Amino acid sequence: MPAPTPSVSGMALAHLSSALDGSLVQPGSADYELSRMVHGRPCEPAAVVHAASVADVARAVVAARAEGLPVAVRGGGHSLWESLPGALVIDLAALDTIELEGGATGPGGTRVVRVGGGATWGEVADHLGGHGLAVSSGDTRSVGVGGLTLGAGIGWVVRCWGLALDQLVGVQLVTAGGDVVEVSESSHPDLFWGVRGGGGNLGVATRLDFLAHPLEGVVHASLALDPAGLPDALRAFRDVMREAPWELNGSLVATPAFGPEMPSRTVLELAWAGTDEAAAREAMAPLLALPQLLSAEVGRSAYADLLQEPPAPPPGMPMPTIVDENGWFPCLDDEVVDDLLAARESAGAAMLLVRWLGGRFSAIDPQATAVAFRAAEAFVMTAALLPPGAPEDEVSLVKAKLSPFVTHALGTYGNFTNSVLPGLAGRMYPAHTHHRLRVLKREWDPDNTFARNHNVVPATS
């Protein structure tokens, strides 16, 4: 009896495996258990491509379309989308080169740095720090460059240089058709607009080109606050930052306890872009004099040292159910502050982040990128930690209590949204921006190959 004819799926994967410069890992293979781990926990991908070249990424995308498989892209490994079952995961970890062009090429002595889509922000900060340069990125060393940048990237120097995507000058993108295109203001400018804020909806970013800014160091202040004084401290933080020089950046952070060695805390984290400690202390002075202040550490630091890792549950401890909300807020007046803090308390949300914006972030034309909420003076996020596997009705109840984070906000920031539910993209963009992205999606990904994201559905008319 002749052997059964391989399925289209099996034939496509077999062909992909033999064509790759890297490797294809499938269920049942020796490497699958390791390859399916995401942020220390297992997921169930259909297969994992460990790409060793840009051509591998293109081959994987073409194979996924032939298979009818969704594509999930793995950069830094923080994305919830990788944990959804059934996708062809494209792991970019090997595409981690960081190449700095020689000589200043832009205003203020900026230089172009070309970063592979699999690099992490800690690697970039370390590399550029050796040259007296920096790119304002996120807060976490292990977060991937591509995912954070395509979604926005609110970094420690956002008030000086804008978002991570505002520092982009070019992107190498693998499209849904498997083509490799160079995207910039002069090459596919509409697509360049869309990738800056459209997330992974328009392709796989295999290289991102940034303007790196001269920065010899920062003045970092960590101010421990009395949690009971949070409302007044938040208002004081707001009042100071509204008038502060663009060099001063900061966040108010409240975190829950993670075991006896990591108690709950409320802190103001401040970063002055530069090494002039006298100027930094002058700008920080009202905050250093807060009556809620318990202790303060102020000193010069390398920019790379600002990037840390968030607290995590001990190994083996089940992940809690995270119920969160966030928003771009145009005005944190007293009424809004009261509403947000009351909602947080009602929901039992132990985590709070208030990141101040303004400065360069707000000076950029809201039509220049797909991140259009430039009128926001602050980004605010809160999260409640429920027991693992909390029932849906309990989750819904907590979510409802956090509704002021939706009603007072201009919109939602996808990079800080712990949700994989469809339809969230409608909250992430103004209506005209969302429509423009949908039209681009129809042009570049009409079959919605890249749907493992806060999905922008292709326009139909």
Give a written overview of the molecule.
There is one protein chain. 29% of the residues lie in helices and 24% in strands. The N terminus is likely disordered. The chain starts with 7 loop residues before the first helix and ends in a 17-residue tail after the last helix. Strand 2 and strand 3 form a beta hairpin. Helix 1 packs antiparallel against helix 3. The chain is α+β, with helices and mostly antiparallel strands. It has a seven-stranded antiparallel beta sheet with strand order 16-13-15-14-18-19-17. Strands 7, 8, 9, 10, 11 and 12 form a six-stranded antiparallel beta sheet that branches. Strands 1-4-6-5 form a four-stranded mixed beta sheet, covered by helices on one side.
| Beta-strand share of residues | 15-25%
Please identify the top-level CATH class of the largest domain. Answer: Alpha Beta
Principal-axis shape equals globular
Radius of gyration: 22 Å
- Report the structural category: alpha+beta
Task: Give a quick rundown of the structure.
The protein is α+β, with helices and mostly antiparallel strands and 461 residues long. It has helices spanning 8-19, 32-35, 54-67, 121-129, 145-151, 158-161, 189-195, 230-243, 277-288, 334-347, 360-363, 392-401, 404-407, 425-428, 431-444, and strands at 23-25, 37-38, 41-42, 47-50, 71-74, 88-91, 98-100, 111-116, 133-134, 168-174, 180-183, 204-214, 218-225, 248-255, 265-273, 293-301, 321-329, 351-356, 378-386.
